[in-house]
Design brief:
Helix content: 55-70%
Structural class: alpha+beta
Largest sheet: 4 strands, antiparallel
Strand order of the largest sheet: 4-3-7-8
CATH topology of the largest domain: f41 fragment of flagellin, N-terminal domain
Distance between the termini: 26 Å
CATH architecture of the largest domain: Up-down Bundle
Radius of gyration: 49 Å
Length: 373
């Protein structure tokens, strides 16, 4: 090429066409990729700044997945507390039903008649001093011994001293009942004192509250099971697990949510017994514990609610921040397709004009060729 002489006009037009071709190539690349800066060669400062912004946006997007899991874990705990509250209310309803079930004691009376002030063995065939009988209620057995000085009224007093037993004299008949409505068994001990007094036997004392005990304890078992099942992604805030939600790349901004143990024991609730439900005071004590458990659940629900609000707020903020970072990176690297489209049209026009100019510039050389001919 160095040996070929080209006129200055042709050379200038050729150079212009080459420059236009380079610009066309760059414009087409921007339109096809959508980027005005696609490599450090295009603009090192813009390229690396945009890359830093994009990398941070990507890191925050990854954190958003973990934050989303934290939100669902808190939602699972909140749902668990709502269900636990329902079970506690059911247990309270069961206790109140027991409390409203008034015990009906059906008295049973001796078949023997005797004077209140007389000794037990006076006038009663077969009764001997030191004879014994055994009275059983609530699984506890008490032995009473007939002595020469023990009167019928004194015997009744001995019966009244037994927990859960009431005895009274009505005329010449001795009546016995269980204050908690359960069965009472009177049996012979030494010799046949129970038979001689006309009290031997097992007596169904009427209405009691035992059926409510089983229902109540079953509800506490359900509380244990529900608390153990309130997990999400392996984290159970109702079973003592804690959760840390990280809000930035290095973890310097985070929220640690402390878990609680909300099984029956953690709520200070325990299985009750027939003896506890055998008295109004015992049931009222259970109801008081249930009220305390309800307050504990409500307080923790409020705490988890506040934590959830914080996590969701940071989640929304991070979404907005990711958008800002991506827009910032785009402003540095993205091409304006409207501008690039106009540039392409202008360059195509320039290329067409350049080709025409090159043709005109070569006409003088062609005139010299005609003269030579």
């Amino acid at each position: 090429m160095g040996d070929i002489a080209i006129s200055s006009a042709v050379r200038e037009n050729l150079s212009s066409l080459q420059s236009t071709a380079d610009l066309l190539s760059r414009t087409n690349n921007r339109l096809s990729t959508g980027l005005k800066v696609s490599s450090p060669i295009d603009n090192p400062t813009s390229f690396f700044t945009a890359q830093g912004l994009t990398n941070r946006a990507s890191d925050l997007s990854t954190l958003q997945d973990d934050v989303g899991l934290a939100v669902e874990t808190l939602n699972a705990a909140a749902a668990g507390i709502d269900s636990l509250s329902t079970l506690v209310e059911q247990a309270k309803s069961t206790a109140n039903s027991a409390l409203n079930t008034k015990i009906k004691s059906n008295d049973f009376a001796s078949t023997s008649s005797f004077a209140a002030g007389s000794a037990l063995f006076t006038g009663l065939s077969g009764v001997v001093s030191l004879d014994t009988l055994e009275i059983t209620v609530d699984g506890a057995t008490t032995t009473i011994t007939a002595t020469s000085t023990l009167t019928v009224s004194g015997f009744a007093s001995r019966l009244n001293d037994i927990s859960g037993v009431t005895a009274s004299l009505s005329g010449t008949s001795l009546s016995v009942s269980a204050t908690n409505g359960r069965e009472v068994t009177v049996a012979n001990g030494t010799n046949n004192l129970a038979d001689d007094l006309g009290l031997a036997g097992t007596y169904d004392n009427g209405t009691n509250r035992d059926s409510f005990v089983t229902d109540y304890n079953n509800l506490l078992d359900q509380i244990d099971q529900l608390a153990a099942d309130a997990s999400f992604n392996g984290v159970n805030l109702l079973d003592g697990n804690s959760l840390t939600a990280k809000f930035n790349e290095d973890g310097s901004s985070s929220l640690t949510i402390s878990g609680v143990t909300f099984d029956a024991n953690g709520l200070s609730l325990s299985d009750t017994t027939t003896s506890a439900f055998g008295s109004d005071a015992g049931i009222n004590s259970v109801v008081s514990a249930l009220d305390s458990a309800t307050n504990t659940l409500r307080t923790q629900s409020s705490t988890f609610g506040n934590n959830l609000a914080v996590v969701e707020n940071r989640q929304n903020f991070t979404d907005s921040l990711i958008g800002v970072l991506e827009r910032g990176a785009g402003a540095l690297t993205l091409a304006d397709t409207n501008v690039e489209g106009a540039n392409l049209l202008a360059l195509q026009t320039r290329q067409s004009l350049g080709t025409t100019a090159l043709s005109l510039s070569s006409q003088s050389d062609q005139a010299v060729l005609s003269f030579i001919r």
